[in-house]
Amino acid sequence: MKQTPLEQKLSTIARPVIEDCGFTLVCVQLTSESGSQLVRIMAEDPATRNLGVDDAAKISRALSAVFDVEDPINGAYRLEISSPGIDRPLVKLQDFETYKDFEAKLETDTPAENGQKRYRGVISGLDGENIKLATDQGEVSLPFAALIKAKLVLTDELIKKTANL
Predict the structure, then answer these.
(1) Which backbone phi and psi does 37 adopt, to 5 degrees?
(2) Domain locations in the chain?
(3) How many other β-carbons are positioned within 10 Å of the β-carbon of residue 81?
(4) N or C: which end of the chain has fewer CB within 10 A?
(5) Helices 53-70 and 5-20, interaxial angle, to 10°?
(6) d(Cα 58, Cα 54) in Å, to the nearest integer?
(7) Are β-strands 130-135 and 77-82 bridged in parallel, bridged antiparallel, or unpaired?
(8) 23 Cβ partners below 8 Å, 6+ apart?
(9) Could you tell me the CA-to-CA distances from 159 to 58, 96, 98, 102, 153 in Å, in that order?
(10) Fold of 5-82
């Protein structure tokens, strides 16, 4: 999934800190909010795929100290640590295999021949580095490298099935 250069830099700094705390980095998102920047970092316990409030606080303290030293962001920013949630973002190629048969929304950076950039459908799996998605218009194959957003859709089925993942 595509990231800005600053998001890549923040990921590079955050990943070892989060792993030292016993968790896995899911993604880093950088947005502007109320005149300052918001650094949203999603992490999870690899065993449970969840992140509790105490775990988020532990990561926040560790990352704040490292970000203070590294100073990767110009100006004021807010650091937010959270779980990816049930309707989690899909950021790694392997996520599309893990969440096969679940409904997802995907957005690409370049439109297809028909001009479409946004898709919604059931993940059919992978074909090399392409994601197969069963949509209302039939199956499409989207290059992973072209994705700018991908997220599971919150459904009753997702809630039931993720309890067993």
Answers:
(1) -95, 145
(2) 5-82, 95-162
(3) 24
(4) C
(5) 120
(6) 6
(7) unpaired
(8) 43, 44, 45, 46, 51, 55, 59
(9) 27, 17, 15, 11, 10
(10) GMP Synthetase; Chain A, domain 3 (3.30.300)
DSSP class of residue 89? B
pLDDT, tens only, 9-53: 999 999 999 999 999 999 999 998 777 899 999 999 999 888 999
Q: Residues with Cβ < 8 Å from 29, sequence gap 6 or more?
A: 7, 39, 40, 41, 42
**HSE of 32, CA atoms in CB hemisphere, 13 A:** 3
Please say whether the beta carbons of 127 and 141 come within 8 A: yes
Residue type, 85: G
Q: 63 with 81: CB under 8 angstroms?
A: yes
pLDDT along the chain (165 residues), means of 10: 89 97 96 86 93 96 95 90 94 93 95 88 95 94 94 91 69
Q: Is the dihedral of CA 127, 111, 28, 50 positive or negative?
A: negative
Three-class HEC string of 6-31 = HHHHHHHHHHHHHHHCCCEEEEEEEE
Contact 26, 42 (CB under 8 A): yes
The topology under which CATH files domain 95-162 is SH3 type barrels. (2.30.30)
